[in-house]
Amino acid sequence: MKSILVLLLLANTAIAAVDPLPSWNNTAPKKSIVAFVEKVTKPGSQNFVPLKERVATFDNDGTLWSEQPVYFQYYFAFDRIKALAPQHPEWKKKEPFASVLKGDLNGTLASGDKGLMEMFIATQAGMTTDEYEKAVAEWIAKARHPQTKRLYSEMVFQPMLELLAYLHANGFKTYIVSGGSTEFMRPWSEKVYGILPEQVIGSNIKTKFEIRNGKPVIAGLPNIEFVNDNVGKPVGIQNHIGRRPIASFGNSDGDLQMMQWTSAGKGSHLCLYVHHNDATREWAYDRTSNIGRLDKGLDKAPDNGWTVVSMKDDWKVVYPFDKK
Amino acid sequence: MKSILVLLLLANTAIAAVDPLPSWNNTAPKKSIVAFVEKVTKPGSQNFVPLKERVATFDNDGTLWSEQPVYFQYYFAFDRIKALAPQHPEWKKKEPFASVLKGDLNGTLASGDKGLMEMFIATQAGMTTDEYEKAVAEWIAKARHPQTKRLYSEMVFQPMLELLAYLHANGFKTYIVSGGSTEFMRPWSEKVYGILPEQVIGSNIKTKFEIRNGKPVIAGLPNIEFVNDNVGKPVGIQNHIGRRPIASFGNSDGDLQMMQWTSAGKGSHLCLYVHHNDATREWAYDRTSNIGRLDKGLDKAPDNGWTVVSMKDDWKVVYPFDKK
Asked: Where are the alpha helices (DSSP H) in A60-215?
């Protein structure tokens, strides 16, 4: 009996010694994450948070995967436009479609937000949710990033995957809260991040239930319904979850209000910004970037006690394929 | 050792013999519920549904609790209007407010949907989500139904509470999918039904994130954002869950599209209408009622294989307080 006890104790020690965040250097961000998780999960502690209230929200683009030179969903839209072009001869002379068809990224972006919205609507409206899901699933399985030539789903951040797994193991319910569209993320969020479709909160176009060829469908309409970015993020969180997160993770000023909302909660909380400052392993950009601008957030982080992760200094590896 | 085995077997038999739906008569609806649950949860069966996909959606008004003589949320709005009236002298001459203040229910309803929307907006716009939650929680704890004099939260259907518990015990994730407002149901849905706030899908007004007196808040705006009824129900389900339910429960034509959406799924499914035909223990109404009209649904149920529950014949008790 004694030997069994000793074995159990040894096994216990061995489990405790496993590092849940092996791709994080042992610097301040990792320490603040571990301290937070231990604090809120310790029964009897004054910072203890019951299971149901352990809600953590994650931005997607730039926080869980890369977002340069443009958000990956843009590439999906570009590919859809190319596929649909034969049915739209007018696109050859109409921006941003003309630039997309010429493969001119700068020309495409020159149309600004309005042009991009037109693009998203053109590639989604009229399709049923089932058709759109199929198109995304097919694309994500084989489309490759123009620079790295990797699958987009490989360009996720290994340290953040470990963080998600660590939170899941500690009873957290994790949500994606992204400016990207909900229906674009759901087909792969569970496989790639372990985040269920019902825990994906994003932007969306209006949709309509109808009977099409005798079958009930939900079809996209040519209008934006909700932009889940900036001030939209706390609204999306309230609408879908109805609880305030106790932890939020982002990388841009689009995540600022989500962090303010999280920080204003009563108990313990953790807010963390991923700072893209690693031009060698990923990209380096912040205050002046058009994609994923992090400017106000950098100013506000110190006063609010928000953690800022230097990708260069705090992460041992960036992508899973970097691992030895 | 043998005696322990015998004990275990006996215990097992005893557990299996406990009726999970004691308030249901042993008629067709109960049989179809049990047959469905056993079929989709039996490992190896061709109808087996993995845990994650066991999604069941429940209408609230008339399905989980009563809805006569008007939806209970109306009474909350009436009480709010009475409380706010001193700040709105103009309401004395403006419908539907004037009728509400006089306690004239028919006069109030005469304003139609437009008047009711005005009423909801007037009692919610400007309030923060925290303030609204507090107001609902205080009201539900003490407000009483004008006819039964019971707390509204006591006027829930005992057989449906048992059904919820039975589904929970079998790994189902249950959602409320109601025309009522999300923020009205969340403060009590967990306590009363065991349904978490993040699993409540309802109608909602537009809201806005802002910093008010230095504190981040989400405040109601004077516009309806989404009506989660009729064709809105499948849209709300897709938006929030992103999976098709395998079981849906309703009581009115407002639930018809939710059932069509559920029925059109690939695998096994169960759709069930609660038919209010018990004037003695509750209310009797269907094809011509302004509240909870069940007309098309009654016509469509037989062809679609949807179960129709006769409250009178299929339920032993209606309310929990009816139990001996």
From this structure: 72-84, 97-102, 105-109, 112-124, 129-142, 158-169, 182-193
